[in-house]
């Protein structure tokens, strides 16, 4: 019985420290700098907002490619 | 009078004054600005905004009339625009007019839909925006125009080193605190099993497993999250000071080391949970302090963003745009309509009116003629003028105020709160008692292990959790009650200071009075429909506060008013308006205007006057006055009944100030106070040992607000006043002040009760622990019980609802 629990403890700790690593990365990226916005995003962001975010990423990618081409010229 | 909500800004107004649309009668707008923005959003498919806005209200959009082309100037570019690694341009802006999450959503969405914008992210907490765009596709001025078109405004700001440092510090503390909370929560969960096992029995293996899990979670809390305390203790010792950090670090380390001993072979229970809790509790308090410091940096950026960037000076008949620090005394400076004066000076050419609300707080523009003084930071609201600089920028009014504000914000007056004072002594006493217990028992019994266990029990039973909880729990409940009443306390600790305040200083305009002119008496020679329509159209053709007040009065008191197309509406400086209609002359303005037209006014008036004349005759006279807020008198009576001295400070003249003071029952008032006078007055009150609350709403109050122990601003006040305030009264009502006093005092009583409970608990239990009657585990349980007592007591705070007492 305790053997299984020890195993669970080890797995649990590995999982939680991995998640912790991701969390530390996100904090260093500045994703938690604006607490209010983060909470509002969780509560109110709709599917449409996510689609917008994807569209925006595509737009930015295009702009970056365009800029890179101009630089080469 | 039935109130309806504006479809755009959601503010409520009388139905009669709302703008209706024939095709869609369900729509109501309070002004043309709201109507314009509503249709713009609808046409662009952005009407989701209203769904996201929910019950929030926003300020109606203001027509700025300012030109955005200065955002494309080279001097602007070199100062504010940076180039990213990808070759795009980047600017940092502060967005004005953000009220809720929907405002952020709207701005970001509109900008994201605009061609050429690579990134637009707005911080909700400080309203700072980062915009990255492609200069080849869109100009910055077009981006600014886009933001202005939806009813917001944007100012550039320099991302200072102090901001970068504050952000870094913020992240560091946030990470340390998050890890401490995460680990402590897990330890608490495991603790349930451990303490249950104590009563039901538990196998040795299982206990070891639990101890190991607690050890894994507690180690990062003590050494990573708690590193701040070790560092602080080290620097304290280096300077020969035994500070709070030392006590937290030594307490946590002692318990941790003892628990390690148990984990690796000792007999008994480990107390990793207590070690982690101590660090977590104190760290949360520290994090709140760090947020406060970041707030001061953000506020300063907001203030600096309102300073004009450059000025146009006249050299050899030509114009030259120069940065403010290049202006020299004697330079002739040109100020266009809507621009701010950059340095102090004297008017030399032209005649205009200046909005001096930043200096005096009064909304009525002041007329300026040759030789009159122009103050930096005031706004030219009429025609282009030229003035001679009599001071350079560093010595001008605006810079003085900004520098003083910066000093005040960096050294915001603090009142040492009761808990901090207590816990300082408390921790020293407990650590000394634990040490004495250890020494006593070791001397008496000779057993090192037994002495250590008893000494540890003393520390655990006296763990300052209840003491640490006493203030925050009561304050939190108090703050959320205040928030439900529309009173936003930016930090919970202000409740304590507020409850101790003995002087409240109130600004006049916008705080005691409504800050808006209203018609208080009329004298109509005739009430002919045609004449009324002329008057209505004339009043509607100007945005001057007097014209607006007349228009509002007519809309409320007369039906079927019709617009007539007036010809050649001409504004006469500081006198009024002259127009014509079908060869008949129409006049609206003060007695001087009428006398210039040979229509003589016999009476003399104390109040602001507006005469209306038509076809060579005087038709009507209106007396206008800034009226008192409905609950002003009642609130001041209440404050007096609470033994709080009320003082009124105003930039207005003695006559008006004394009149308002006597109307509301204030004996102590100060007139003709400049922003710096007000700030000095607050300082003087504080030097005399008073705890001062200041309530104001204008830019002119910001400096005094920053000096007060507690600063309160009205929700509709200037952005800067709100930024430097500790408390915001969202609904603008003075009743909020009364509620704040009542709730703060009640909450503070509970804080005192809680501190009493936790001290009595310690006085009773610590001696028992010292005598060796309590094993560490029971000590831990009893410690939790004391925390529960404090929480339970605090819940009673808002049982008794505010009933206008």
Compile the SSE list and pairings:
The complex is a heterodimer of chains A (73) and B (805).
Chain A: H1 2-29, H2 35-44, H3 47-72
Chain B: E1 3-5, E2 12-14, E3 19-20, E4 28-29, H1 32-43, H2 48-53, H3 74-80, E5 82-83, E6 89-96, H4 101-113, E7 117-122, E8 128-133, H5 140-149, E9 153-156, H6 161-200, H7 204-225, H8 227-238, H9 244-263, H10 272-304, E10 310-315, E11 318-323, E12 332-335, E13 345-349, E14 352-355, H11 357-360, E15 366-368, E16 373-374, E17 379-380, E18 385-389, H12 397-410, H13 418-445, H14 448-461, H15 465-484, E19 487-489, H16 494-500, E20 503-507, H17 508-512, E21 513-524, H18 529-540, H19 545-557, E22 567-572, E23 576-581, E24 584-589, H20 591-596, E25 608-614, E26 617-628, H21 632-641, E27 645-649, H22 654-664, E28 668-670, H23 675-687, E29 692-696, H24 702-707, E30 710-714, H25 719-724, E31 727-729, H26 735-770, H27 776-794
Parallel strand pairs in B: 20-27, 20-29, 27-28, 29-30, 30-31
Antiparallel strand pairs in B: 1-2, 3-4, 5-6, 6-8, 6-9, 7-8, 10-11, 10-12, 12-18, 13-16, 13-18, 14-15, 14-17, 19-31, 21-26, 22-23, 23-24, 24-25, 25-26
Helix pairs in contact in B: 6-7, 6-10, 7-9, 7-10, 8-9, 9-10, 9-13, 9-14, 10-12, 13-14, 14-26, 14-27, 15-26, 15-27, 16-26, 18-19, 21-26, 26-27
